[in-house]
Design brief:
Blueprint lengths: L2 H20 L2 H16 L4 H14 L3 H12 L4 H11 L11 E4 L5 H13 L4 E4 L7 H12 L1 H4 L2 E4 L6 H7 L4 E5 L2 H8 L7 E5 L3 E6 L6 H16 L9 E7 L5 H19 L7 H19 L5 E4 L6 E4 L13 E7 L2 H8 L6 E7 L5 H10 L4 E3 L31
Parallel strand pairs: 1-2, 1-4, 2-3, 4-5, 6-7, 6-11, 7-10, 9-10, 11-12
Antiparallel strand pairs: 8-9
């Protein structure tokens, strides 16, 4: 594909968008609600097709894709979209820009689905660039939209061009609004090339963690928390911003971190049987093995470090001696970090605040609501129970921003 073809597609979308903007917003919202109702339906042929094609394209096991979609899309339906519109738009007729380019990243399908629907809800036509690790979700979403509503179908187009193609990327950035996701470096590069009056809506690198209080570090409560956190880790192979990379264990019980690490390792071993880990490329596998081996060396040197891993190295749990931040190689690699109390937890997550997405918390009997509020002030945009990290609501204010507001022209938005 050439830059000229992308420019021509943007022009075609702008023309189709004029017709869409003349139609009442309620008609568009009704159509998009039907789209989401289809995706939330386990029997949807669009879901079935994504379950069939995504494992090979993105490297996930079929079981992981099936479970991840079932949990994440359960409440992503038409009613949720209508609530989102009512929450964020004081005037449902609020418009977006004449054109919106969406630069997709990652391999998890839910952010792609939402990124394509959100501009259309503001009657802004969309030109999307597929993520390199997921070339299948965006075209399927576009097809489902076109099948549901012909006018909306004329207002969405998908291209698959490499990110290294600077000329094509520049053509995409000529849209009136650019929505970009990716690493901090990617976002900085895009930001340098998008200037007013065009708008950039960017979402950079994020991560999540968990925290267990004394009431969740032993007995049945620990077993339940470990099983739930193993699900959060296993789904999408820890590749998304809602995948926990570390578990903070709070309290004075010096043995609690070891119990948590052992329970989590057992739960991850069981999770591997239900949701096998998918494909890992050579560089990621090397990082995983480096961090695992480095932790074993620290353990052998007499430090308060312990490592749990299965013989095939499909997961690793490292019990650290302190809460200092360390590399997260992902692919089901979790660190268990001791902290003395809730105040120490808040100090420990402070270095992560710029990139903190969500925190799963359990076992804080004294003041769980107060801890949740404090974590939100430290940068998290969501707190939840273990096992719920991978199923955010449709109206989750990621990075503290709404879903529709950043894409809208100013009038008609609620703060």
């Amino acid at each position: 594909m050439s830059p000229e073809e992308i420019t021509a597609r943007l022009a075609s979308l702008r023309e189709a968008g004029q017709k869409l903007r003349q139609r009442p917003a309620a008609s568009t919202h009704d159509a998009l609600a039907r789209v989401l109702d289809g995706w939330s339906d386990p029997g949807s042929r669009w879901r079935a097709e994504l379950e069939r094609t995504l494992p090979d394209a993105a490297g996930f096991s079929p079981e992981t894709v099936r479970e991840g979609l079932a949990r994440a899309l359960h409440d992503w339906n038409g009613a949720a979209l209508k609530r989102l519109v009512a929450q964020e738009l004081s005037d449902p007729e609020t418009l977006g820009f004449d054109t919106t380019s969406v630069l997709l990243a990652g391999s998890i399908p839910m952010p792609t689905l939402l990124a394509l629907i959100a501009p259309l809800a503001l009657r802004s036509p969309v030109l999307a660039k597929c993520a390199s690790r997921d070339p299948v979700t965006a075209p399927l979403v576009a097809q489902s939209i076109a099948e549901t509503d012909a006018l909306l179908g004329a207002c969405i187009d998908v291209v698959d061009v490499p990110g290294s193609d600077a000329a094509c990327t520049q053509a995409l950035l000529a849209a009136d609004c650019v929505m970009a996701t990716g690493s901090d470096e990617t976002i900085a590069a895009v930001a340098a090339r998008v200037s007013p009056p065009r708008r950039l809506v960017a979402r950079g690198h994020k991560l999540s963690v968990a925290a267990l209080g004394p009431a969740a570090t032993q007995g049945d409560a620990l077993a339940a928390a470990a099983e739930a956190l193993a699900l959060d880790v296993a789904l999408w192979d820890q590749q998304g911003c809602l995948s926990p990379i570390a578990i903070y264990v709070c309290g004075d019980d010096a043995e609690a971190p070891d119990r948590v690490a052992a329970a989590l390792a057992a739960a991850l071993e069981a999770a591997e049987q239900r949701w096998p880990r998918g494909r890992v490329d050579a560089s990621d596998a090397a990082r995983f093995e480096h961090e695992r081996a480095e932790a074993e060396l620290r353990q052998a040197s007499g430090r308060r470090v312990a490592v749990w891993s299965d013989p095939r190295k499909r997961f690793a749990v490292v019990r650290e001696q302190d809460a200092a931040p360390r590399p997260a190689p992902l692919h089901r690699f979790v660190r268990v970090l001791p902290v003395h109390d809730a105040d120490a937890l808040l100090r420990a997550v402070l270095p992560l605040s710029k990139h903190l997405a969500a925190v799963a918390i359990a076992g804080f009997a004294a003041d769980p609501a107060g801890l949740a509020s404090a974590l939100l002030r430290r940068g998290a945009s969501r707190t939840c129970a273990p096992g719920e990290l991978q199923a955010p609501p449709l109206d989750w204010r990621n990075e503290g921003r709404g879903v529709l507001q950043p894409l809208a022209l100013e009038p008609g938005c609620k703060e």
